[in-house]
Amino acid sequence: MGIIRFLVIAGLIWFAWRTMNNWLKERNRSLEKDGKPPLQADEFSDILEEDPVCGKLVPRSQAVRLDVDGRVLYFCSKECCQIFRKEKGEKS
Ligand SMILES: [Zn+2]
Asked: Which residues surround ligand 1, an ion (CB under 5 A)?
Protein backbone atom coordinates (compact mmCIF):
# COMPACT_ATOMS: atom_id res chain seq x y z
CA MET A 1 0.00 0.00 0.00
CA GLY A 2 2.85 2.33 0.81
CA ILE A 3 4.22 2.20 -2.72
CA ILE A 4 0.85 2.94 -4.31
CA ARG A 5 0.40 5.91 -2.03
CA PHE A 6 3.85 7.18 -2.96
CA LEU A 7 3.10 6.75 -6.66
CA VAL A 8 -0.17 8.67 -6.32
CA ILE A 9 1.58 11.53 -4.54
CA ALA A 10 4.43 11.55 -7.06
CA GLY A 11 1.87 11.61 -9.87
CA LEU A 12 0.06 14.52 -8.29
CA ILE A 13 3.32 16.44 -7.85
CA TRP A 14 4.25 15.77 -11.48
CA PHE A 15 0.84 16.88 -12.66
CA ALA A 16 1.00 20.05 -10.57
CA TRP A 17 4.51 20.82 -11.84
CA ARG A 18 3.44 20.31 -15.45
CA THR A 19 0.37 22.48 -15.02
CA MET A 20 2.44 25.24 -13.44
CA ASN A 21 5.02 25.03 -16.21
CA ASN A 22 2.34 25.36 -18.87
CA TRP A 23 0.79 28.24 -16.99
CA LEU A 24 4.13 30.04 -16.79
CA LYS A 25 4.72 29.55 -20.52
CA GLU A 26 1.24 30.84 -21.27
CA ARG A 27 1.83 33.83 -19.03
CA ASN A 28 5.15 34.65 -20.71
CA ARG A 29 3.46 34.49 -24.07
CA SER A 30 0.72 36.90 -23.05
CA LEU A 31 3.27 39.24 -21.48
CA GLU A 32 5.11 39.39 -24.78
CA LYS A 33 1.87 40.26 -26.53
CA ASP A 34 0.94 43.04 -24.13
CA GLY A 35 4.33 44.61 -23.56
CA LYS A 36 7.19 45.02 -25.94
CA PRO A 37 7.03 43.38 -29.34
CA PRO A 38 7.93 39.70 -28.98
CA LEU A 39 11.53 38.79 -29.50
CA GLN A 40 11.85 37.20 -32.88
CA ALA A 41 14.67 34.99 -34.02
CA ASP A 42 15.69 37.45 -36.71
CA GLU A 43 16.03 40.18 -34.10
CA PHE A 44 19.14 38.52 -32.76
CA SER A 45 20.71 38.27 -36.17
CA ASP A 46 19.52 41.75 -37.01
CA ILE A 47 22.10 44.28 -38.09
CA LEU A 48 22.60 47.22 -35.77
CA GLU A 49 22.69 50.61 -37.41
CA GLU A 50 23.94 53.78 -35.79
CA ASP A 51 21.51 56.62 -35.50
CA PRO A 52 23.37 59.61 -37.05
CA VAL A 53 21.53 62.05 -34.77
CA CYS A 54 21.86 60.59 -31.27
CA GLY A 55 24.40 57.84 -31.93
CA LYS A 56 22.21 55.05 -30.58
CA LEU A 57 22.47 51.61 -32.11
CA VAL A 58 19.16 50.43 -33.53
CA PRO A 59 18.28 47.07 -35.09
CA ARG A 60 17.25 47.56 -38.70
CA SER A 61 13.85 45.94 -38.23
CA GLN A 62 12.88 48.51 -35.61
CA ALA A 63 14.58 51.55 -37.06
CA VAL A 64 12.96 54.47 -38.83
CA ARG A 65 14.31 54.45 -42.37
CA LEU A 66 15.12 57.45 -44.46
CA ASP A 67 16.53 57.53 -47.96
CA VAL A 68 19.18 60.20 -48.36
CA ASP A 69 20.87 60.57 -51.76
CA GLY A 70 20.35 56.88 -52.49
CA ARG A 71 21.67 55.85 -49.10
CA VAL A 72 19.40 54.46 -46.42
CA LEU A 73 19.83 55.92 -42.96
CA TYR A 74 18.37 54.40 -39.83
CA PHE A 75 17.04 56.30 -36.85
CA CYS A 76 15.97 55.18 -33.39
CA SER A 77 12.80 57.26 -33.58
CA LYS A 78 10.74 59.53 -35.79
CA GLU A 79 11.98 62.46 -33.73
CA CYS A 80 15.60 61.78 -34.66
CA CYS A 81 14.57 61.34 -38.27
CA GLN A 82 12.81 64.70 -38.22
CA ILE A 83 15.80 66.39 -36.59
CA PHE A 84 18.06 64.98 -39.29
CA ARG A 85 15.76 66.11 -42.11
CA LYS A 86 15.48 69.54 -40.55
CA GLU A 87 19.26 69.92 -40.23
CA LYS A 88 19.80 68.68 -43.75
CA GLY A 89 17.18 71.09 -45.06
CA GLU A 90 18.90 73.99 -43.37
CA LYS A 91 22.31 73.09 -44.76
CA SER A 92 21.30 72.80 -48.40
ZN1 LIG B 1 18.07 58.69 -32.12
From this structure: 51, 53-54, 56, 76, 80
Q: Ligand 1 centre and the CA of 50: distance in Å?
A: 8
Output the CA 78–ligand 1 centroid distance in Å.
8
pLDDT digits (tens, 9 = 90+) for 5-57: 999 999 999 999 999 999 999 888 877 766 655 555 555 568 999 999 999 99
Ligand 1 centroid from CA 59, angstroms: 12
pTM: 0.49
Burial class for 73, CB neighbours closer than 10 Å (0-12, 13-18, 19+): buried
Count of beta carbons in the 10 Å neighbourhood of residue 76: 20
Sequence ranges of the domains in the chain: 1-38, 41-91
